[in-house]
Write a structure and sequence with these properties.
The complex is a heterodimer. By secondary structure, chain A is mainly alpha-helical. Chain A folds into 2 domains: about 50 residues, no CATH class; about 200 residues, MetI-like (MetI-like fold), CATH 1.10.3720.10. Chain A has 13 helices and no strands. Chain A is globular and about 70 Å long. The two termini of chain A are about 20 Å apart. Chain B has 2 domains: about 40 residues, no CATH class; about 250 residues, Orthogonal Bundle (MetI-like fold). In chain B, helix 11 packs antiparallel against helix 13. Chain B is flat, with a radius of gyration of 28 Å. The chains are: A mainly alpha, B mainly alpha. The interface between A and B is large, with 123 and 116 residues.
């Protein structure tokens, strides 16, 4: 809204907006506040009944414990972190490129079979991973991808949900923009890369947030068996598996896992906001 | 062409006087390979189709191998008695016709009841999610102080509902104990108000009126937790509406109310369709959906034929629901050209 269009709202309206925001915001933030507070609670407060939301005597003990356990593990902890970061980064990057290319042509090129393909994609949205788990494993065996990163990364390329979202956003890109570029002699790839992708930046940032969140939490225990290839959520799950005495460490772990997708979103959201003010087309 | 770094500039700028005369366009017989010549002679539609297939082929390939084939395989299981052979990580299938489906609908005591319940609940939940997320998106799309912070807060459920807690390893019995403990004290699964109730009851300030209020709040909380993604989708959609439209309508004398119904609403209508489809699907495949839980349970009993049949019956019904809803809504969607 750099054009100088100002929202005129009364003082009462402002107060109402803030009230609504605070009310709902409190709902949304509750689990996070709880998890963070939990992570800093000493053990006797964690098991306190009735439970308290806010920590009374904050302590770093849980994090020290987590650190001690991590440094004692057979595989160095940085290895787990690397695995998860690698899977998340590679999977998300390739997913955005491949899905946007597909979504772009389905939305704008109208070639034979494109409509049908999109319908099939929507239908497959309905199939939860549980249903396809067994056949999927057999396919991975055939490809000899079991126990490699590929088994986790490559299926993420073709996640139908990202394709579906991107296609819907591509529909809002005016055809005139693409035609104008074509008339000026731009090649197909450069239209896609230099016009369409910047225009729908909010869309692929949304997909990025979604995909990071999905892969970051991937435990991938059904495809990866070597300890040195296993992911962070798996390792942290094992730590919690120690039982009740690890409850404090568990709280620290939970907070640790939540932080990264949150940071990704916070850094993406400022971009989601301001990029799409104008697609450059004047009617 | 190549002088213009930004293609967007090239669209708008008139060729300047200094630009070199277009010598390259003068007919020079170019040497082309056979295929290239064919491509050169093809019609616009064919070229379009070729480019289209090239662009989409990576996605189609991945999609076929990792989504479509497994789904077909599970469809085959619906009509078979599946005998797993653990040692060779294979399974044998004997064709049994509709036996599995018959078991789902007529023998199984729970499936029909659970399905009806979930469908009824969906009818109330999905519209509430759509209205709520649209409302929130409208609010946080406005300009106010701390907007970025508020948006991040509203995204929290998407991260949390992915089940950082719920999704942790299920193998250990001790872990289950721990999780029960979390669930008792935590609002993630049992609802925020249980904790509040507990606190208020112990303080002796609980009465019927308060109880009803808490019930309503509890519902809102559940809806809020499931609508994070929808808010993001609406929000990104709101960003795509050009401010010049509002400007123009304001100059013409439209009130905020009018420009909402005449600009915002039609422009975002395609995303309402997206969100309805997304919400319905998300509602049905969510892991706390009772039918989903049942399907997962049956899978863990290694009864693949029966569980596949149940999953397929379930998904076909959901597809019909999505199809009907999408059909109704897409008639009213406005596409901006």
């Amino acid at each position: 809204m750099k054009t100088g269009l100002r929202q005129t709202r009364s003082l009462g309206g402002n107060i109402a907006v803030y009230l609504v925001l605070i009310l709902f915001g409190a709902f949304f933030a509750f689990p996070l506040i709880f998890a963070i507070n939990h992570a800093f609670k000493p053990l006797n407060e964690i098991f306190l009944f009735p439970p308290r939301l806010f920590v009374q005597q904050p302590t770093m003990d849980n994090f020290y414990d987590l650190f001690t356990i991590m440094s004692r593990s057979r595989i160095t902890f940085s290895r787990y972190i690397f695995n998860t970061v690698f899977i998340t980064a590679a999977g998300t990057f390739a997913h955005i490129i491949i899905a946007s290319m597909g979504a772009y042509v389905v939305s704008k090129y109208n070639f034979p079979g494109s409509k049908l393909f999109f319908k099939i994609v929507i239908i497959t949205l309905l199939f939860s991973p549980h249903v396809t788990a067994i056949p999927n494993f057999l396919i991975m065996t055939e490809l000899r991808w079991v126990d490699t990163y590929l088994a986790v990364i490559v299926p993420a390329f073709a996640m139908p949900i990202g394709f579906f979202l991107l296609k819907q956003f591509m529909d809002t890109v005016p055809m005139t923009l693409i035609e104008a570029a074509k008339i000026d002699g731009a090649k197909e790839l450069s239209i896609f890369w230099r016009i369409v992708m910047p225009t729908i930046k909010p869309a692929w940032l949304t997909v990025m947030v979604f995909s990071v969140q999905n892969l970051w939490n991937a435990r991938a225990t059904n495809f990866i068996f070597s300890e040195e290839l296993k992911t962070l959520p798996y390792a942290l799950g094992q730590i919690i598996g120690g039982g009740v005495q690890r409850a404090g460490v568990g709280a620290a772990v939970t907070m640790f896992i939540m932080i990264v997708p949150l940071v990704v979103f916070i850094s993406a959201q400022s971009n989601i906001i301001e990029t799409m003010a104008n697609s450059g087309i004047k009617e | 062409m190549s002088e213009n770094k930004n293609v967007g500039d090239a669209v708008l700028s008139v060729p300047s006087a200094e630009s070199p005369p277009p010598q390259k366009n003068q007919k020079q017989p170019k040497k082309r390979g056979f295929l290239a010549q064919k491509y050169h002679n093809a019609t616009f539609a064919t070229k379009n189709a070729i480019a289209g297939y090239l662009f989409i082929s990576p996605f189609i390939l991945g999609f076929l191998v990792f989504m479509f084939l497994p789904i077909l395989e599970s469809l085959r299981m619906v009509f078979s008695d599946v005998v797993p052979d653990m040692e060779n990580s294979k399974y044998a299938m004997d064709f049994v016709g509709l036996e599995n489906l018959r078991r789902v609908f007529f023998t199984d005591p729970e499936f029909n009841r659970l399905l009806t319940e979930e469908l009824l609940k969906m009818v109330f939940t999905v519209p509430a999610i759509i209205v709520f997320s649209f409302f929130v998106a409208l609010i946080i799309n406005q300009k106010f102080k701390g907007r970025g912070f508020v948006r991040s807060v509203f995204f929290l459920p998407v991260i949390l509902s992915a089940g950082v807690m719920l999704g942790l390893e299920t193998s250990s019995a001790l872990l289950n104990e721990y999780r029960d403990l979390i669930q008792e004290s935590n609002a993630l699964t049992s609802g925020i108000t249980d904790v509040l109730e507990e606190l208020l009851l112990s303080g002796g300030m609980m009465d019927d009126f308060l109880y009803y209020i808490l019930q309503i709040v509890n519902q809102i909380y559940n809806i809020a937790l499931t609508s994070g993604m929808q808010i993001i989708i609406f929000l990104s959609g709101l960003q795509t509406i050009s401010p010049s439209m509002y400007e123009a309508s304001k100059i013409e004398g439209a009130t905020a109310w009018e420009s909402f119904w005449k600009i915002t609403f039609p422009m975002i209508s395609s995303l309402i369709l997206v969100n309805v489809v997304y919400s319905v699907i998300d509602y049905f495949v969510r892991s706390d959906n009772t039918v989903m839980t049942k399907v997962t349970n049956e899978i863990s009993k290694m009864d693949y034929g029966f569980s596949s049949a149940m999953a397929w019956a379930y998904f076909l019904i959901v597809i019909v629901v999505v199809g009907i809803l999408a059909g109704i809504i897409s008639r009213r969607v406005y596409y901006y050209e």
